[in-house]
Amino acid sequence: MSAAPEQVLVELGERSYPIHIGPGLLDRAGELIKPKMRGGRALVVTDANVAPLYLDRVQKSLAEAGVTTMHTVVPAGEQTKDFKHLEALLDAMLEARAERGAMIVALGGGVIGDLTGFAASILLRGVDFVQIPTTLLSQVDSSVGGKTGINTRQGKNLIGTFYQPRLVLADTSVLDTLPRRQVLAGYAEVLKYGVIDDEPFFAWLEENGAKVVDGDMEARRHAVATSCRAKARIVGADEREGGVRALLNLGHTFGHALEAETGFSEEMLHGEAVALGMVMALRLSARLGLAPVADAERLERHLRVVGLPVALPKPRLWAVDRLIGHMAGDKKVKDGKVTFVMAKGIGKSFLTREVAEAELVSMLAEMAAGR
Fold first, then answer.
1. Which of 60, 78, 93, 354 is most buried, taking the most CB atoms under 10 A from its CB?
2. Residue 7: beta bridge partners?
3. 173 burial level (CB within 10 Å; 0-12, 13-18, 19+)
């Protein structure tokens, strides 16, 4: 069965926008972006890994739609999400004489989307931008919902804005060029939606997750579309994370601490950290008697099957006090208390700030010891 394109709407009143999902969308970029533009010029921002693969195709499509295009290429990697590269990108935009009617096009993974979206939100007090995510992780998570930002030495995404794109183009055929490790990192975010509040989707992934990872086009389209519908529903109900949207941080409070401890480096990808963070959240929930131990084991079993980590990597020595310190600096801390996404089971997540520190320390110590 071929994977036909699908459309999901993020409903935010006058700022609503579509997510187009399916194969071959890169070559329709001009056709789909042009109606969203207020002017005739577009600036494509991409990175050194993505540019050789897709920049020419996107620029050609825009040109065929009558759009004048420029581009800028930034270094690849999480380290690009910092003040230095933000300043360089803004300088490049100004040197290109970007006007308020220009369209900024973020072509790449989550780093490009976060950095470019943030730059667009503050350039000339806000110019339009669109997302063309090229990784599984960015297609199902970071390109949708309007979170933009950069990292600092104090933590991940602590500087940023809520700034919605005008359009998202998730071309599932570009996922074929991703290394398997990157696909698995994105799969962790897909699985997250099942753990949050959709046990039937989790069960579907137990049956079809290997197909998603291995490249089955229809399985990938279904996984991306289901994930985007879930996120669109939550963002439409709570755009600025005042309540239910915080559930999307399942695994992230722990995961961001792991990323900070590894210096936001290739040692641990974001999706790998989220997978481990979900393991920690379910283990802690089980320790506290909130969730069945069987559900924590079910999650870990599926992660093992697809090839995602369930134990902290060695030979690094993991210091529990340092991990807790990273969590204390999380942007979701309120009144000095860390917000945790916990679970009563698969598909039954909830928010709490009332977590017994002794149990948290004990769980982290077990993980640090490789148990």
1. 93
2. 20
3. middle
Cβ–Cβ < 8 Å for 188, 213: no
CATH number for 6-176: choose from 2.40.10.10, 3.40.640.10, 3.40.50.300, 3.40.50.1970: 3.40.50.1970
> Would the pTM of this model clear 0.90, i.e. be above it?
yes
What percent of the chain shows pLDDT beyond 90?
90
**Residues linked to residue 103 through DSSP beta bridges, in sequence order:** 42, 128
For the cut 80, the answer to whether the pLDDT of residue 29 exceeds it is: yes
| pLDDT in the model for residue 95 | 93
Domain regions of the chain by residue span: 6-176, 181-368
Phi-psi region of 347 (alpha: psi -120 to 50; beta: other; left: phi over 0): left
64 — pLDDT class (breaks 50, 70, 90) = very high
**Residue 296 phi/psi, 5° resolution?**
-65, -40
Task: Quote the pLDDT of residue 4.
Answer: 61
- Phi first, then psi, for residue 49 (nearest 5°) are -85, -40
Angle at 359 between CA 356 and CA 365, to 5 degrees: 140
**Do the Cβ atoms of 20 and 5 come closer than 8 Å?**
yes
- Class (C level, CATH) for 181-368: mainly alpha
Whether 6-176 shares its CATH topology with 181-368 is answered no
Read off the pLDDT of each residue in 300-309 and give the average, rounded to a whole number: 98
Concatenated DSSP letters for 216-264?
-HHHHHHHHHHHHHHHHHHHHH-TT-SSGGGGGGTTHHHHHHHHHHTTT
Q: What is the β-pairing status of strands 150-152 and 155-159?
A: antiparallel
Instruction: Check whether the bond before 315 is cis (ω within 30° of 0).
Output: yes
Catalogue the active-site residues.
Answer: 125, 147, 189, 231, 241, 245, 249, 252, 256, 270
**What distance in Å separates the CA atoms of residue 67 and residue 31, rounded to the nearest whole number?**
10
